[in-house]
Every structure is written in structure tokens, then in C-alpha cells.
Amino acid sequence: MSTFFARTSLARQLFVLQAAVLASLVIVGAAVAYYDAKSDAEDAARQRVLDLAHATALSSDVVTGLREHDGAGRLQPYAESVRIVSQVDFVVVMTTEGIRYTHPNPARVGGRFIGTFAPAVAGRPVTETYTGTLGPSVRAVVPVFDGGRVTGLVAVGVTTRRIADDLGSQLRMVVVICVAALLIAGAGVGMISRRLHRMTLGLGPAEITGMYEHHDAVLHAMREGLMVFDRAGRLTVVNDEARRLLGLHGDVNGRTAADLGVGGSLGDLLRAGATAHDEIHLTEESVLVVNQSQASRRGRRLGTVTTLRDHTELQALSGELNSVRGFAESLRAQAHESANRLHTVITMVELGRTDDALAFATEELATTQQLADELQSAVGEPVLVALLLGKVAEASERGVELSVSGDTAMAQLPIPARDLVTLLGNLVDNAIEAAIAAPPPRRVTVRLRQDDSGLLIRVADSGAGLAPEQVDNAFARGWSTKLDDRPHGRGLGLALVRQVLHRHGGVIDVTNDHGAVFVVRFPAHSTVAHGVG
Fold first, then answer.
1. Distance in angstroms (rounded) separating the CA atoms of residues 121 and 105
2. Average pLDDT over residues 29-38
3. CB neighbours of 355 closer than 8 A, spacing ≥ 6?
4. What does the DSSP assignment read for 475-513?
5. Tell me, what's the pLDDT at 424?
6. 266 in Cβ contact with 290 (< 8 Å)
7. Which superfamily does 314-523 belong to?
8. Peptide bond into 441 cis (omega under 30)
9. For the residues 218-223, what does the mean pLDDT come to?
10. CB 511 within 8 A of CB 487
11. Does the pLDDT value for residue 11 go beyond 70?
12. Phi/psi zone of residue 135: left (φ > 0), alpha (ψ -120 to 50 degrees), beta?
């Protein structure tokens, strides 16, 4: 039996169990109905013989026959006619001593009645099941009154065999009804079983349990966030990583995408249920790569599956890589420029103009070294110094004059260096792009100032600036004034800036002064995000 349940599908097991339960219920019900019908039949027979005995005892033929002691001439024919018409097994008229005047078997006439009749002699009817000359029977004995006294007795009985025969016909009907009920119930259980077989794909309990355990283990082990919405848009599956990335708490199963509280472009995507392939979306804390597709089976739509990959660290590393690439480009440009200057110096020496060559070389070296010395003394963070030097060289190569304000001073970083590089690098990159798009002179100015109130970062460019209605949209993911020519589109830089601001409680103001001016402020000690202002 255990092998059967281990190897059989859940639907078939349920069919067998339900069929067994139904069969047991029908058999028990039939048995109860039989015994109840048997009891009812015996009660009905007892009442019937009692009523017939009373009616016979009141008959004038019986009263007269007993008065005249005319058993053979009057009582025997009358008793037999009553017995035959009433379909009972015996009608016995007897004396108060129990001597029979009548009996279905004439040979028994004159014999003594077998059974209890003393209560009837006392004037009370009595019923019992007793074994007499005809076998076990249900009988009633009643007194016959004549002039107020008991002059004889009437006994009427039905054998239990006759009761059983009458009950047999009823039992056959019960059996037919039970068989029909079993067939109908079996057909219903079969239909349920087939439907369950389709729903469970023919899997057994052990397989379903194993699949659930593996499914649960995979969900918890996945480093990607996973969300599954059903056809009605309700969340049915969400793993731990998705909860972490979206900040979901408590029981969220059964909620719609609109009820999850996910904002921004990612919230719009989840609510729409549209297809997405490797789309970049930003939350307040993370940079997510989102894939979303419709799930279907055999042409029937099952719902929507969404996966979330955390690219926050990767995006930060990508920013650092871009900075390193910028540094490399700057070094290449500087190496090219240094080669030109070196050739100039060598040529001047060959021409005998040694003093002019020395003055030219010293001037160029002093200019480059002066900017590096100024930044190192004003900014204590080497990574930030390297970033600014690289951006100066990159801007110069692209025809933009990038200058760092003379009052720049920053002793220590109020936020992690990686986040500051992300913020400042993106602001400067956007400023350079804006300056290049505008007519000369093309300038970008950077100012960093730290005091007791916190850190101020100001990046200004000579570009076209931002219209007031563009300011709010500028920090949204995907917004850009340039054509989309990148793998994931433009418009990510300022969205990353906004994310850094939210993470560290910074605010930003955007104004126009012969170009766009971005002013960022970080409080000295900030733990609550104030958003973008």
C-alpha cells in the first residue's frame, strides 16, 4: 500500500481514498437504514396486530361465539376469514385459560396457547415477540369483554419470517438506491480526480513536496529579486532579494503592484505589466536592471514574471572605471602634449637657444604642477584630486576650460568617497556636455567648500541652461536633452546624483546664470534624506 501511494499521482490517490470513503459511507448508511427499517417494520407489525386484535375482540361474532362456546361452528370460520383478509399468520380466539377455539392448523384447536396472556386476562392488552407453534412471531393478545367482564381472549400474530420477506422488497430498493448513489458519486469523484490530475500535472505528493522545497530553497538562495504576479495583477511570489531591493515588509502576497508602494519608473513598469529587457531603473537606494515578461502555458496567460538585478555596486564601479578611463585619456593627451613640448625644447637647444628652452620647459612644468599642488592642498581626498585633474585634462582636450574655484577647501569627506565621485563626476560630465553644445567661450567652474554647516558643491557651465519646467524632470531616469545613443540610453547621470542625495540627506538647487548652475549641500551630520529641492 505504501508503495502504491509513493508511486501514484496525487489525483489517483485522492480518487481511491474518496471512493473508499464514499463506499464506506454508503455501506454504513445502508446498514443503518436496514436496521432502522427492520425496527420500524417490527413496530408497525406490532401496532397492526394489536389494532386487528382489538377490532376482532369487538366483533359480535366473537362475543357471541365465546358466549355460546361455539368454536367450530362460528369462531373458526370467522377467525380464518379475518386472518386471510388481513394477511396475518394467525388469529386465535381462546378462553381465559388459554384453550384455543381457533387456529390456522385445525389440529391445534383445543390446545393451550403458547405465550403470555395473563395481562389480557386482567383486562390489559399485551404485545410480545415469542416463539409459538408457527415459529417466532410478533403477537398481540387482547381481552374480549361481554357485559363488562372478560369472557375470552383474541391473539393475532405475524411471523418474523413474513416481516423479513416484506422487508426484503424494501431492502432491494435500498440496495438499488445505494448502488446508484455509488455510481453517481464515483462519476463525480472521477471528474474531480481528472481535473486535479490536470491541475497537479500528474505529480504525486512526494514530487509536489520536493518541488515546493526546491522552489522555496531556490527563491531564498537567488541573488536576483523575483516577483510573480497572477493574471489579476496580484503578487503571488516574492523572494527575499526582491523584498530587500524594493524595501517590502510584512505580508505582501495578494497585493497589486499599485499597493506595493514602489514609485518612479519601476512602479510604472510593474503596474503596467509591460515587457522589459534589461531596463535600468532607479529606486531611492539602488540601481536595478529589470526584466519583465508574460508567463504562459499552452497558450494560456498565467501572469507576469519580473526579475531584479542589483547593479548599484556595478554602476559605482562603472563610474570609477569611467573615471579611470578619463584619467587614461588625460594621460594620453598629456603624453602627446608633453612629446610636442619636448620636441620644442630639443629643437630650441639644437638651435642654441638654451636659455629660452629652459624658460619654456620651466613655465609649462610650473603651470601643471601648480594646479596639482593647489588641489592637493585644498582637497584632502586623493581620489577627488585625481578626479578633478582628470576632468580638467578631459575638458581641455574637448575644448572646454574647466577651472576649480580658488576658495575650494575640504578637509574631510562627509559622505563616502565613492558616492562623492559619482555625484561630482556626473555633474561635471553634464556641465562639459552642456558647454560643448553652446557657442564659445566654453567654460565649466567647480567649487567645493566645507565649513561647520556642511559641504557645498557648485558646478556651473556656460551652456544653454535649464528651463524651469525642465528642472524637475532632469533628475528622472531616462531624461536627457541628447539623442539616445547608449546601450541603456542616456539620462542616468543626474538620476544617480539624486540617489546619492537621498542616501546622504543632501539637497540640490538648480538655477541659471549664463548657463546652468547646480548647487549641492550636505549637512555636517545628516541621516535623513531631504530629497531634491
1. 24
2. 75
3. none
4. TSTT--SS---STT-S--HHHHHHHHHHHHT-EEEEEES
5. 86
6. yes
7. Histidine kinase-like ATPase, C-terminal domain (3.30.565.10)
8. yes
9. 73
10. no
11. no
12. left
Are the C-beta atoms of 153 and 93 separated by less than 8 Å? yes
Residues with Cβ < 8 Å from 354, sequence gap 6 or more?
348
User: Over 184-236, what HEC string results?
Assistant: HHHHHHHHHHHHHHHHCCCCCHHHHHHHHHHHHHHHHHCCCEEEEEECCCEEE
Q: In what order do the strands lie in the sheet with 276-282?
A: 235-238, 225-230, 300-310, 287-297, 276-282
Hey, which CATH number is domain 222-310, 3.30.2130.30, 3.40.50.150, 3.30.450.20, 1.10.600.10? 3.30.450.20
| Domains 222-310 and 314-523 equal at CATH topology level | no
pTM for the full predicted model: 0.47
Q: Which fold has domain 13-166?
A: Beta-Lactamase (3.30.450)
Q: Where are the domains of the chain?
A: 13-166, 222-310, 314-523
Q: Which residue type does 173 have?
A: M
Closest CA to 454 of 415, 498, 419, 500: 415
Q: Is the pLDDT of residue 196 over 80?
A: no
| Other beta carbons less than 10 A from residue 107's beta carbon | 8
Amino acid occupying residue 104: P
